[in-house]
UniProtKB/TrEMBL annotation:
Pfam families: CHASE2, EAL, GGDEF. SMART domains: CHASE2, EAL, GGDEF. The keyword Cytoplasm does not apply. Keywords: Membrane, Transmembrane, Transmembrane helix. It comes from the Bacteria. The keyword Ribonucleoprotein does not apply. The chain crosses the membrane at residues 32-49, 349-366, 373-393. This is EAL domain-containing protein. Residues 484-622 form the GGDEF domain.
Length: 899
């Protein structure tokens, strides 16, 4: 039952880890709080700018653009006729203002054809002789004429209405301009300080026209500020309507919905009316507006269209603007054409804020720059498209403000993400090394050392009436402050590279996420000892660091480290597969009043833990730092010496690396037949450095590859020189060891060819030795590489045979010439028949495979005698000679020894 429950828990945990990984492998998730703050700031900034009117110019520009580009072409309004007074008409009459007689004649000619209403957009507040009496009679006899007046304001006085018209037949012709000088609004009513309401000229004309159809203006039963006119439901324009924010909203205003950029109705000139060149059907039951279109009269207004008039100015005559207003109201009242509407202020705020949220969400979810750019285009385009679409159906909503909110929120979230990723790890979401170091610096200077928070009782309190012999003493008053103890734990996963390479990087990433979550869960557990987990960070590929504060004992940190070790050692189930790993943990302790790089020290201690392979965390000691510094200096010097290379000078090789040679002796003749090349390092300051000190460093850092090439060149050059000085048959040969990294380098064959060509050494005189473990790592690849090397006609040998992997099943496939018996077997030959039998078996195996044998570690005559009796071809060891520099080898060769 428990096993079943455990498997279910593991499966559930695996699913959770995979879901976390799917999120975090696809995007860097900035915390929701940071995203929300960035979005809120962006929205707040935009709404503040909007409140002060900062977006109004942009919104008005978009209004004009939509007005110009909308597909709205209803054609001419046949209910209107415009009698325009042109420059030609003024020149013909030779007088301006026109005389009352001319105006009376125009009214007489028009009234003959029974118009519904005549709108006289000409000031007639003072008599214009001749014909004043004629005009008075016309105005008194006609009940469908609407005259104009101009309201007074603080800047200029008004213009009185014609004296012969009743108040209900007069309307003001004041046109409201926006701050940029463009007319976008239609002022229907105005009220003076005495509370008297005035109607606009356009509204008076429309009301007169609609009165014959029994349509009158009425209050809206559902909206206190709204009015109803036939089929039209008119809502008052307010300061927050549409894109407006700081407009003068006095009176009752609506948005002016232009019918077209130019003429919206049939137009005739004043002379055409006076010359009776007008079709009566153009006038009967129609609205006739009379006004000037001559640019010389300055009665011109900027519009969203900027249409040119006869004199090439980008303005619209006032009478045409009144015609626009009249046509708008009539079309709404009779045809149900919607008045331009707008949202309440709270909906506009919600609209703007929503786009800010959308912009922030887009930036939060999308990582790829091109996709993010496409998101910006789609977002801004969507705002414009929605605004333009609603405008086509009669609605004006803000476009600039939500566009800026979208872009600003998006930019803010992108900036917060960049800031977040600068201090956090992409994969796990943990703080990174930079953030960890800043936290460490912050903790160092955060507070002063603490005092112990308790009292110590030194005796009993005195009884009543007794003198005090004892007292209660505060320990804080006697002891100095105790510095706060900090601890940094540095974790490095063991065998992570094997897991990452063997199971794939996806599993490796899932494992890192799972480990981070497991450590985070452990660190979040409530503590009763006052220890504060300041931060957990991922500071490297498979490295994590934890900063602890408020410790008073180093044992507490060690206990936490041990808990971490056992938590990580528990198996992880990822994609249905159990993964096992452990961690090497280093720890550094320091006081809050110090200034140390605890992360560096913990990292150094981690290397010590990895070397010891213990489950217990290793605490940093100063000796570790000294060793680390010495190791770093050794690496630096090693690279410098390798880069310096080797140079032949006067028959010698000048290099910091010295090649020592140990003789290889033919056991039948007892003569030297060659040498094994062994490297030493003549350090300019430390003196002679043996391979055990620098070869492991070279292996770990990868310097072994150029070092091995350097040794190969020196050895080949030296043996070629000795072949000339000490000729023999066969000629002297040299054996050079290849490390595993050298054997794995892709250009090894080219390196060997180049070396042989440069030194002019016969390939048959060069033997390359590879350890058994190297060739067994990747058998098929090793066989292929050995075959390529064998094709160069050089010799191949397997070093330390019998000490590594069991290669018996593959040995017959290796194109090698020599097996080298390890010194451990040779040295124990005299200890018993069993050890001797091992050597005998190896020799027999080699001979059966057509290979010869070299026994290394020969140190006694007895060992030599046994090897000869077993048929071993060659030997090397201190019995013959230890590894010697080239000068001593030359002296040895001159003595021509025989063993």
């Amino acid at each position: 039952m428990l096993d079943k429950f455990s498997s279910q828990v593991n499966a559930l945990a695996s699913g959770v880890y995979e879901q976390i990984a799917k999120i975090k492998l696809n995007r860097v998730h900035t915390p929701v709080g940071s995203v929300a703050i960035a979005i809120a700031i962006a929205i707040g900034v935009v709404l503040t700018i909007r409140e002060t009117g900062g977006f109004q110019p942009l919104e008005l520009v978009t209004y004009d653009w939509m007005m110009r580009n909308r597909r709205y072409n209803p054609g001419l309004d046949n209910r209107l006729l415009l009698v325009k007074i042109t420059e030609t008409d003024i020149q013909t009459q030779q007088k301006w203002p026109l005389s009352d007689r001319i105006v009376a004649r125009v009214l007489e000619e028009i009234s003959k054809f029974e118009p519904a209403v005549i709108g006289l957009d000409l000031y007639r507040d003072v008599p214009q002789s001749p014909g004043h009496q004629d005009l008075r009679l016309q105005l008194q006899s006609l009940d469908n004429v609407i005259g104009i007046t101009k309201l007074s304001d603080a800047q200029e006085p008004g213009v009185p209405p014609p004296p012969h018209l009743p108040p209900e037949a007069v309307g003001f012709n004041d046109i409201v301009n926006d701050p940029d000088g463009i007319a976008r609004r239609n002022l229907l009513f105005a009220q003076n300080q005495e509370g008297i309401t005035f109607y606009s000229f356009a509204l008076r004309v429309v009301l007169k026209y609609l009165s014959d159809r029994n349509i009158a203006i009425d209050n809206s039963p559902t909206h206190p500020q709204g009015i109803i006119l036939g089929k039209a439901h008119i809502t008052q324009l307010e300061p927050h309507s549409g894109g407006y924010q700081t407009i003068d909203a006095e009176g009752y205003q609506i948005l002016l919905n232009y019918r077209s950029p130019g003429s919206i109705s049939r137009e005739v000139t004043l002379n055409q009316v006076l010359n009776r060149e007008v079709d009566p059907s153009w006038i009967k039951d129609k609205i006739v507006l009379i006004g000037t279109t001559a640019s010389s009269e300055k009665d011109l207004f900027f519009t969203p269209y900027g249409i040119k008039t006869e004199t090439e100015t980008f303005k619209m005559p006032g009478v045409r603007l009144h015609a626009q207003m009249v046509s708008q109201l009539v079309s709404s009242a009779l045809d149900g054409k919607a008045i331009l509407w707008f949202w309440p202020n709270w909906i506009e705020i919600l609209w703007i804020a929503s786009w800010g949220v959308i912009g922030g969400f887009v930036a939060w979810q999308i990582q790829h720059p091109l996709k993010l750019g496409l998101g910006v285009i789609l977002g801004v385009g969507g705002i414009v498209a929605m605004g333009f679409g609603l405008f086509h159906w009669g609605g004006w909503i803000p476009i600039a403000a939500p566009g800026v909110a979208f872009t600003l929120a998006l930019s803010g979230v992108v900036a917060s993400k960049l800031l977040y990723t600068a201090f956090h790890d992409d994969l796990t979401g943990l703080p990174n090394r930079t953030s960890f170091m800043k936290q460490l610096e912050r903790v160092y200077g955060r507070s002063q050392p603490k005092r112990l928070p308790f009292f110590l009782t030194l005796g009993k309190l005195p009884q009543a009436g007794q003198s005090p012999k004892y007292s209660l003493v505060s320990l804080n008053s006697k002891l100095p402050p105790v510095p706060r103890l900090l601890a940094v734990l540095f974790l490095d996963l063991d065998r992570f590279k094997v897991i990452n390479d063997g199971l794939g990087h996806d599993i490796g990433d899932l494992l890192l996420i799972a480990i981070a979550e497991r450590i985070r869960t452990l660190m979040r557990q409530p503590r009763t000892d006052g220890i504060e987990v300041v931060t957990l960070a991922r500071v490297g590929g498979d490295e994590f660091a934890i900063l602890l504060d408020n410790l008073y004992r180093s044992e507490d940190a060690i206990n936490i480290g041990e808990s971490l070790y056992y938590q990580i050692a528990r198996p992880f189930t990822l994609k249905g597969q159990a993964i096992y790993t452990t961690a090497s943990i280093g720890m550094a302790l320091g006081h809050a009043d110090e200034s140390r790089n605890l992360l560096r020290d913990a990292h150094t201690a981690m290397y010590r833990a990895k070397a010891l392979s213990k489950a217990r965390p290793q605490v940093f000691e100063s000796a570790m730092q000294n060793n680390a510094v010495a190791r770093f200096q050794l690496e630096t010097d090693l690279r410098r010496a390798i880069n310096a290379g080797a140079t032949p000078v006067n028959g010698k090789i000048e290099s910091e690396f010295l090649v020592y040679y140990q003789p290889l002796v033919d056991l039948k003749s007892g003569k030297i037949i060659g040498f094994e090349a062994l490297v030493r390092w003549q350090h300019p300051e430390r003196g002679l450095v043996f391979p055990g000190e620098f070869i492991p460093v070279a292996e770990e850092t990868g310097s072994i590859v150029p070092l091995g090439e350097l040794v190969l060149v020196i050895a080949c050059w030296q043996i070629c020189k000795w072949q000339q000085e000490f000729p023999s048959d066969p000629p002297l040969m040299v054996s050079v060891n290849l490390s595993g990294k050298q054997f794995a380098q892709p250009n090894l064959i080219e390196v060997i060819k180049r070396t042989l060509d440069q030194t002019h050494l016969d390939p048959a005189c060069l033997k390359l030795e590879i350890t058994e473990s190297v060739v067994m790592d990747e058998v098929e690849l090793a066989i292929e590489m050995l075959s390529q090397m064998k094709a160069l006609n050089l010799k191949l040998g397997i070093d330390d045979f019998g000490t590594g992997y069991s290669s018996l099943s593959y040995l017959h496939r290796f194109p090698t010439d020599t097996l080298k018996v390890d010194r451990s077997f040779v040295m124990r030959m005299v200890e018993g028949d069993q050890n001797s039998a091992i050597v005998k078996t190896i020799i027999a195996l080699a001979h059966n495979l057509k290979m010869d044998v070299i026994a290394e570690g020969v140190e006694t005559a007895e060992q030599l005698a046994q090897l000869r009796s077993l048929g071993c071809e060659c030997g090397q060891g201190y019995f013959f000679a230890k590894p010697l520099p080239a000068e001593q080898i030359e002296a040895l060769l001159k003595s021509d020894p025989t063993w």
